[in-house]
Amino acid sequence: MTGSPTPPPGHFALRHPVIGPRPLARTRSFTRRGGRMPRTHQAAWDRWADRVVLEVPRPAGEGSTVVDPAYRLDPEEVFGRRAPLVVEVGSGSGDALVAGALQEPGRDFLAFEVWRPGIGHALAKMETATGGAALPNLRVVEADAAVSLRTMLEPGTVREVWTFFPDPWPKARHHKRRIVTPEFAATVADLLTPDGTWRLATDWDDYAVAMREVVGAEPRLRLVSTDRAPLRPVTRFERRGTEAGRTITDLAYALR
Q1: Which pLDDT score is estimated for 62?
Q2: Which of 100, 134, 154 is where one domain is finished?
Q3: Catalytic residue among 95, 144, 167, 190
């Protein structure tokens, strides 16, 4: 038999210089999360994905959410201008992403999301909000932000990072899968401009406590606000949390 054997799935097949030889504990799978989309979301994907969803090099193949660590995205080239950049980590179905891009046309919004049906939903919301057009200041990358942001953007170039209602992984044995880790806090600190802000929100009290502990331990970041993020709309995750009697916590950190 000739040729190289097929590598097993996951990060560990990549020999990724940032990840190392073993997969991250944060999640079990780093392949794109798909699933059947509702007809309207699929139609929006078909109309707008080529324009809004960025193609990036993936050394492990098209099913991977890991971007080639040698690739560096140029926001000025992508958006056709130089403007303050907002990066949303886990845009879900696009509530905050679309609302922010609409309300702040002078800023550029780059979202990272691995759930393709969510991206389709976001594109449908964009289309509805604009009356059938793309937002020129909105782009999405189908990639895992925890890994890709370590290498994909130049340090000191992001005005805001949003991490709104990330998966809480409520069971104690799954906490290691949460995205807010010391490593990710260091990544965000690297990316922020001197006047930049990292905005987080969660409806799980123990995750809020963990966020404050983890991010507070990053020596370059300081807590500057617990007020609601200015552009954050009321999302379905927030409504579910409120209906279940959970407290919504907002946190904003800036560089020291």
Answers
A1: 85
A2: 154
A3: 167
